[in-house]
Amino acid sequence: MNSLRSVTLINGKPADTVLVTERALQYGDGLFETISCVAGRPRWLERHLQRLRRGCERLRIPFAAEQTLSAEVAGLAAGEGRCIVKVILSRGAATRRGYRPQGDERVTRIVSRLDWPSEEATPQRLRVGLSAVALGINPLLAGIKHLNRLEQVLAQLHKGPQLDEVLMCASDGELIGGSMSNVFLVDARGLFTPAIERCGIAGVMRALVLDAAGALPAALDSFASDRFHVAAD
Fold first, then answer.
1. Residue 233's CB: how many other CB atoms inside 10 A?
2. Of 8, 30, 65, 204, which residue is least crowded by CB atoms under 10 Å?
3. CB 167 within 8 A of CB 202
4. Half-sphere exposure of residue 38: CA atoms within 13 angstroms, side-chain side
């Protein structure tokens, strides 16, 4: 696989630096999306944009350049076999000191093209453990991909080298998902996945699986509202 030349656009222009006053840097005040691109096209771009839109509404970030962003993502993917395009939206450079936005910030749009992750020659089964790091419960942030990911960072730091992924629970012991994945369980009763109304990420692939399952005639009618509870030994 040929290595791509990484490219970053900041507000549409090639650049690799931002102001130190960016609220994304100061407070994690922003959102991100990581989009896989194959055969020169971003996959499920509209679903990523929908989640980004929900995040902007939740955080009250006045982002009005969605069409421009979509074109930038498509432009970075064009002509490439496989790549990753990462989008970061910051509320913008702070115009005052303190947590509360002034309201006159201008959203900063960061779009980067990155190499496709390396893959093993022979696919292996994932080795999964249970993380000791708990997810904080906050319905206001549940589902969206905001920039505050320290819980996932800690989960990865605590993960043993023999594991590929770790499952994470809410602070009350309820299983929510992996540190970088959503979780499904299939048994004789149907298809189940943890609810994410209190914490966790509404993964694009999670939504695709649920949509596909809902279209099947089998008894797969009780997934989104079911919950898992994990008790440590």
1. 3
2. 65
3. no
4. 4
* CA 174 – CA 169 distance, rounded (Å): 5
User: Any idea what the CATH number is for the domain that residue 147 is in?
Assistant: 3.20.10.10
* Within-domain flag for 232: no
Domain count, the chain: 2
Specify the CATH number for the domain of residue 61.
Answer: 3.30.470.10
Q: Is 30 within 8 Å of 147 (Cβ atoms)?
A: yes
Token pair listed for 126: 């994932």
Q: How many CB atoms lie within 10 A of CB 38?
A: 13
Q: Among candidates 210, 203, 213, 209, which has minimal Cα distance to 48? A: 203
135 and 222 part of one domain: yes
Do 141 and 98 share a structural domain? no
Sequence letter at residue 10 = I
pTM of the complete model: 0.86
Confidence of residue 187 (pLDDT cuts 50, 70, 90): confident
Q: How far apart are CA 209 and CA 222, in angstroms?
A: 13
Map residue 192 onto helix, strand or coil. Answer: strand
- For residues 221 and 137, state if they share a domain: yes
Q: Are residues 106 and 181 in the same domain?
A: no
Domain with 217, as residue range(s), is 128-226
Determine the Cα–Cα distance for residues 231 and 44; give it in Å rounded to an integer.
36
